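queue> pop job 88
queue> type: inverse folding (structure -> sequence)
queue> payload:
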């Protein structure tokens, strides 16, 4: 197990959390609401791996992100290389806050 694997479970720092919050600002109100609830619930316990997976989800278009959160699409339906365990975990966390 390398150092990167060990770091993945460490909580993100305050500065990284602030940057991630800024990165997660969306143009669609519904996505902003989901993400705000996500941060309200998980900001204090978010790991580096979860933060990285969330940042990867932010590369999606607003409609695709909303469809994922609502369960209208699956990660495997998108051609974005996001069908990974860490992204699935974060997506489930987002869905818990609907």
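queue> result:
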């Amino acid at each position: 197990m390398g150092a990167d694997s060990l770091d993945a479970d460490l909580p993100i720092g305050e500065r990284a959390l602030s940057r991630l919050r800024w990165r997660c600002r969306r143009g669609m109100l519904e996505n902003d609401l989901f993400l705000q609830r996500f941060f309200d619930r998980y900001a204090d316990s978010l790991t580096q791996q979860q933060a990285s997976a969330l940042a990867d989800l932010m590369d999606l278009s607003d409609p695709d992100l909303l469809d994922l959160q609502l369960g209208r699409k699956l990660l495997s339906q998108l051609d974005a290389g996001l069908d990974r365990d860490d992204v699935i975990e974060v997506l489930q966390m987002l869905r818990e806050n609907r």
